[in-house]
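User: Could you go from structure to sequence for me? I need the amino acid at each position, not a summary. Structure tokens:
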């Protein structure tokens, strides 16, 4: 039976990326060696890193004056690397969920970290807009897509943030919607994310940083935690996560070949609309996120109160039909279908058909 992977992360990758990664595990570019056993210093691997960086810049339209680096440690390490490198005294955070809160917690160890607004009282079902960004903050941190709650900063809300930030450096955790739509990179000082949601298998983290914002804090930064170390080292200061980085490069090739982020955005709009329409017209399910803040990447829905006892039954029904990973995060409950770039419209249609079939048989 064909399986459709709706996992939130690690998550679906393009089939050809998985196949090409498997080929490189068996024989890396006809060298007679596996990618698992080559030296990252060898002539073989440098071109991979160079191509990944160049493709990221090209596909995501990153202007001059920015560096792209690939590190280990996940998005979670960035929660402390960001304040380490950018926060002298004060920073500001928009609290839109668990990941934002974890980032904020780390910043508190470096000085005054202000929570400008939070939707915690509404279990993060919407993105707050009623706040100001303190203009004496060293940076303002946002999470563009809230993987757990299925909320995302729409283009309109991003525009509002670009205005609100004034002269403050904008920092974004883009773990779960990177490369899913065009972004006005020049509005940002730093963008980071774990690659395991839209780009690669787990193990590699991407960072896009405006060079001129670095080197401004007075504290000593440990070598490995200093962005400049990795910019100077070309992501090769120490051994990089070779295999996931190779897959990331392949995903970027795939994305470029398929029309870049512009075409990806069109597909993502169509996929999300298909599933949200199905949920909105359902008699048993209801979406959890406020409509204007709905994510195109993670679609969260629950059973209406009178159908709550069908929770396990629907999950079993969907799983038996090849729908993998549609369970909601434990803090939200219900269901979540992640529709990252590699998810096809056929996959979404299969889930919609499954939901409709379930409702018919009730
Ligand atoms: C998954 C996720 C993280 C955590 O990523 P790790 O690489 O596991 O540290 C952080 N932020 C967001 C928005 C996420 O979706």
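Assistant: Here is the amino acid at each position, in order:
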């Amino acid at each position: 039976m064909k399986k459709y992977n709706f996992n939130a992360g690690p998550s679906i990758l393009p089939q050809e990326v998985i196949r090409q990664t498997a080929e490189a595990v068996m024989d890396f570019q006809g060298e007679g060696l596996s990618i698992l056993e080559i030296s990252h210093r060898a002539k073989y691997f440098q071109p991979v890193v160079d191509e990944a960086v160049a493709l990221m810049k090209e596909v995501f339209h990153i202007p001059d004056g920015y560096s792209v680096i690939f590190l280990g440690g996940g998005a979670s390490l960035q929660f402390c690397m960001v304040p380490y490198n950018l926060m002298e005294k004060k920073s500001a955070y928009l609290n839109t969920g668990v990941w934002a809160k974890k980032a904020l917690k780390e910043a508190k160890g470096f000085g005054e970290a202000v929570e400008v607004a939070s939707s915690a009282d509404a279990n993060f079902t919407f993105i707050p807009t009623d706040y100001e960004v303190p203009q004496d903050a060293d940076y303002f941190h946002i999470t563009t897509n809230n993987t757990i709650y299925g909320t995302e900063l729409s283009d309109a809300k991003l525009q509002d943030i670009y205005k609100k930030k004034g002269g403050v450096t904008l920092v974004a955790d883009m773990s779960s919607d990177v490369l899913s739509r065009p972004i006005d990179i020049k509005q940002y000082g730093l963008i980071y994310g774990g690659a395991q949601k839209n780009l690669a298998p787990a193990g590699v983290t991407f960072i896009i940083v405006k060079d001129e914002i670095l080197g401004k804090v007075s504290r000593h930064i440990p070598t490995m935690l200093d962005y400049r170390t990795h910019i100077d080292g070309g992501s090769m200061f120490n051994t990089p996560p070779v295999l996931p980085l190779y897959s990331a490069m392949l995903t970027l090739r795939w994305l470029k070949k398929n029309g870049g982020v512009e075409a990806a955005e069109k597909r993502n709009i169509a996929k999300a609309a298909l599933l949200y329409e199905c949920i909105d017209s359902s008699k048993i399910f209801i979406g959890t996120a406020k409509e204007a803040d709905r994510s195109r990447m993670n679609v969260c829905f629950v059973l209406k109160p009178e159908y709550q006892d069908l929770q396990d039954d629907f999950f079993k029904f969907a799983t038996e039909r090849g729908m993998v990973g549609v369970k909601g995060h434990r803090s939200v409950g219900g269901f979540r279908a992640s529709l990252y770039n590699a998810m096809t419209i056929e996959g979404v249609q299969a889930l919609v058909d499954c939901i409709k079939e379930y409702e018919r048989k009730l």
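One structural detail worth keeping in mind: The CA atoms of residues 76 and 103 lie 8 Å apart.
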